[in-house]
Amino acid sequence: MTDTAFPGTIDAPAGTEQQSAELKADRRQARRAKQASASKQRRISRFALAIFLIVVSVVMAMPFVWMFLTSVRSSTEIYSADMPLWPSEWHWENFTVALERAPFGIYARNSFIIAAVHTVSNLVLGSMAGYALAKIRFRGATPIFGFILASMMIPFYAIVIPEFLMIRFVPFAGGNDLFGQGGTGWYDTWWALLIPALVSPFNIFLFRQFFISTPTELMEAARIDGASEVRTFVQIMAPLIRPGMLTVALLAFEAGWNNFLWPLLVTSSTNLRTIQLGLSVFRQEAGTEFNLLMAGTTMAAVPMIVMFFFFQKQFVNGFVGSGIK
Amino acid sequence: MTLRRRDFLAASGVSLSALALAACSGGGSGSGGGNGGGGGEISLLTPEFAGTTGKAALEEGILDGFFEGTDFSYKVDYTDWTKLNEKLSTSVAGGLVADMIMPGAGWVEPFAHKGVLAELPESLLDGLPVNENLLSQCRYEGALHALPFFVDGRICIYNKEMFDNAGITEVPTNLDDLREVLKEVTPAGGVGIDLFSSNIRQTWSHLLGCYGGTLFNEDGTEVAFTDGTGLAALQYMLDLVADGTANFDVKGAEGQPRPWQQGQAAVDLLNSSLWPSFTEQSPDLVTEDAMGMFLLPSAEAGGDPVMWTGGTLLTMSSRTENPEKVQELLSYMLEAEPLLTAVTESGKVPARTDIDDPVVTENLMAQYTVENFGYATAFEGGSPAWMEIRGLVAPELEAAVTGQKTAEQALDALAAAAQDALSRV
Amino acid sequence: MSTNTVDRQALSKPPARRRGATLTQRQGRWGLLFAAPATVHIALWTGLPVIVSIILSFTNYDMLNPPEFSGIENYVTLANDPVFWKALGNNFIMAIVGIPISMLISLALAVMLNQGLRGNSIFRTAVFLPHVTATVAIAMIWLWIYSPGGNGLFNIVLSFFGLPNQAFLASPSQALASVILVTIWQGIGLKMMIYLASLQGIDQQLYEAADIDGASAVQKFFRITIPMLKPVTFFILVTSIVGNFQTFDLIYNLTNGGPANSTTVITYQIYQTAFQQFRMGLATAQSVVLLVVLVVLTIVSRKVTGGKDD
Questions:
Q1: Where is this region: Disordered (chain C) (predicted)?
Q2: A235: which of A123, B141, B399, C208 is 20 to 30 A away, CA to CA?
């Protein structure tokens, strides 16, 4: 088994091999024997670790697997007294049936637009603020950081009414006058879906935390070289936290994608509704169509899982190629 | 920098004043869009008709027939029952109330009290074959504020085989009788009656009706369940639990089969709206041969049985700019054909008693509910204060059922909360 | 936030400070410029609503009629409301039990996953799955797992070992523990990812230097890894506390706060008060209390995780 992801362990043998070219053959052999036994031991512990991680993964993923298994069951099977753990028949048509129950194409497009815009805005605005709070000393930094921290602590339900009123009474929008009267403001528009969550305090906090662990020397060196503040940020500092960027991107995308209550409140048109809202079609008062709900939820989750899987690689590679060494 | 700060201050100033205006005017600016004279847009807010088929049923099946050839157009805002509260409160606060709203029972009094719902002329009821019992949840201070559209009846269904095996041939005629019957029919490891899969608050208010009690007095100004009926209803639940014929732990999780469907309960106290899912999931159990039905009997021997009803109502916003048109629409929706379309889609029970279609007649639970509208005397609401205590009822009842509190303590807490809420109305 | 929150490392470097007033001033200006867009946005869309909420907490406001000033009446009501105290207590129990367990598990997993095993990305995805799945679906799956009758997954397992069925979410004494288990399961993924990103951000030269000094793996873990993870631990702790006190969707879909209020939490109370009882003034007072509690807890956790961020 070769190391690929732990740079420390790659570098150490590489260094010793260079030196070993000058060593005598017997010493080399002795070293090899020693290394072999050590690596055997390591292999065993790695094997145990792998087994353990597989068990953990199965436990963590089990409810998801069950969700998927439920999504292909017939409704009779779900409601039979002794439902087999493994579906007796695979009803793939549940997925197409689920898709026909609501305009999921439109919903998915809307969720995607919201998620994409919020990802970009969080990355740009959040990293700028996080960088300033972590690396630049300026008047107001302390109160701003305190304010950001405090903002994280507001439960959504506490501010939903004022926030809704702001959307509805935006001046000069949707037929409103200067005082927000006369029209409907941003109600039932894209602005209402996009603007309030452009940047989340949580992500600013996250960015700040990532920037704190970057070496300040690089920033200073860039300044001494005469780089502008913007260039220092964009070309020197921001690339250092590429893994952090990806974390935030993922979280922001996910938050946008899974948005539920807000889109319901600020829209009334079907073509502004989002995918999570569409799923409620399977959960009616008269009973929940569990298999269809799970089929829908699986489909809603798959883009996130695929994206996460994709980010995994970027995460590791992006890090190895970055400037932190 | 200073510019920025000033911008920010200006921006927040404008928003603050907008908020202040909003709060003070209570959204009095109305819903805009309408243009007084002929024509305009009628907006609807509905927690029903979800999804592609629901939308098609409502818009193509019902609304198109009404709006075609008029100067009016319509716009439907679909939500679901669990989020109707939020949707309605935000739109009320923002002054964007839909012209027509479809709330549930218990909503009429508080929203009528606060002037969101308009009073409707009694003439809308002329010639409408709707049982007077269903109208109690549509009136506030005696005045009509809503029309019943579809109804859910709370009925008991039983497994005939289990009853036969226990030698029970007659359905119980009073609550004591029911209690004895349940002891006979309880299957091993199961319960005689599934009291807890359905909403415990509604079960209690149903039993309250069996004891002849109501939540509030006639005009909704005083608590009425404190006259001993509320306590008796709760005590009955506790007695069944003590008998082992009802069990708080035996209940169906959402999306899972109910104990009755799994043969773990002989009787299920359920909503008639479960019919479509039961026929799909356990078709063998809901045939006329396998399933019998009865209403919760009266506490007193010889008394009338009691059916609890909830429902989806049709109401009109008091801020609508086209009240005549909306009233026309309400009447239209209760005509036989649009109502049948709606019932076909929802699987619920039509409020009219004269719908003869197989959709209703072959739906055993719906048919049974329609036949028993005369006994539909229990329902929720009855006071503008109901909304406030609605959420407090279940925890108190659960505390009593699980032995955290005595029945008296639970009822006292509820009574205190209800008094408090009434004092604020 | 009484202490200076700007990174000490950044500030104490002599060159940056001693290069003369103009540079520092210029930097300060840029700092403000960088921070301004996000700050203004949050001030507008969170700060302003919060101010409105705080004002509303001193009123009776039913969202239908204009608010009426009522002084501290709402706060008096809360102080005398046993259910509110119960909710607050449940929040604390969830935080005290759930957060340390999930942080330890996620740190352990992050360290393990950082060993560069093959199939790493599959493990990570598996652990992260609960985080990307909609809470409604998660709640419904766990409802089935906890189902109190014989068809619940846990009860099937229990009866396999000859143990009696448990009520789980239906029992006032087991419901909160059952909910906490779900929050742990749901929260591990994100915490682990943040730990992992942070582990990978540790300068490898530190480990190489330690190798040369002959440090053992355990020594390296406690002397290098743990101290280097301090800022991120503070971050995870604070966000976990905040997340824990904001748990809503899960409670709403799993238990509705029941049975008998045994799993009710402040956010659920806020929701109920605002949107079921239409007492927005009282609900905002509850939010203000929550905010105060969280601010206090954040200050405390800064002290616990070592105060300064460096």
A1: 1-20
A2: C208
